[in-house]
Amino acid sequence: MRKKIILRSLLGMPIGMTISYLITILISLAMADGNYYPVVPELTDACGSEMNAILFQALFSLLYGAVWGGASVIWEMEDWSLLRMTATHLAVCSIATFPIGWFMRWMPHTIAGSLLYFGIFLAIYLSIWFSQYRSMKKRIDQINRKIQARN
Length: 151
Fold this sequence. Notes:
By secondary structure, this protein is mainly alpha-helical. The protein has a domain of about 100 residues. The chain has five helices and no strands. α2 crosses α3 and α3 packs antiparallel against α4. The longest helix is centred in the last third of the chain and has 40 residues. The two termini are about 35 Å apart.
């Protein structure tokens, strides 16, 4: 199990970096002023320079990807209920997401900003979870129909 978590974490690192880089491109395109915005200005201010901020963001993107990659092993716990897997995965990912979001300045450093950030995170998480659940349920129903047709 430990080896699987480490391997998934190592796989998650470049995925986290790639997603982070793509997000900066999308944000820069959305700004539509012809400039590239590699980090939020608040992070540049906090780090003292844009290069320090970019390196900081890269490190946290690797960490973020590693946590999500390692956490994917939770879905393979066959002796756990779906509720326990979901709650554990959500807790692990939330515990990683919030501090990273805080340090990366992805949210205002206020109670309202933190609550809004977590609310958005939870809405996205639940949307993905429900879509995955419906998809998996549909596939299971198809398999069950094929089994019943053979019997």
